[in-house]
Amino acid sequence: MIYTAVFALGAWLAALGGALAAPQQSLIPSMGEKIIIESFIVVVIGGMGSFPGAFVGALLLGLLGSFGTVFAGNMQMAIPYILMAVVLLIKPTGLFKKGV
Question: Is the full-model pTM beyond 0.90?
Answer without folding.
Answer: no
